[in-house]
Structure prediction request, 188 residues.
Amino acid sequence: MNASTSPRLLGISGSLRRNSNNTAVLRALGHLLGDSAQFIVHPLNDVPLYDGDLDGDVPPPSIRALKQAIAEADGIVVCSPEYNYGMPGVLKNAIDWASRPGFKSPLKDKPVLIITSSPGAIGGARAHHQIREAFSATLSRVVARPQATISAVTQKLTAGELTDEATRLFLVEAVGDLLAEIRRTRPA
Prediction:
């Protein structure tokens, strides 16, 4: 990223569901950011289960695409549901693939903002903790800020659109923290 371009953010949803609340939140976030950042959502639907035998010089095309998208991004925004008090397997699987090779992966030193959501009252806080730990293990720079959780997410979306103004403002503030981290560590 050079000083004349806006930061490039990569959105990753922890849900594969066609009408995913988390993917809807990411799409809304892309619209809310306007010109302050380029925002692209990268789907995980084609990412195979991690297999060390496939993790060599020529990984599957979907893994090359995921790693390239991460490498080209200035920062990552993850929005994930909570499944059984934890992060979804699809997200953990993608983190495992992207974390290779160890200590030299495209995740190393990459700023990451974590958002979780849930129809319940705590907004996926338990998954949030697990996701933070997984990204920390990859040497990513998880943005230091209060947890970004969205409780009662189904009540804040209408026909797949994020309509709750307080949540919209909260998310823009959270991404503002990610953008500040990117600027803080940006090469001169």
In short: The longest strand covers residues 111-117. The chain has one domain: 8-185.
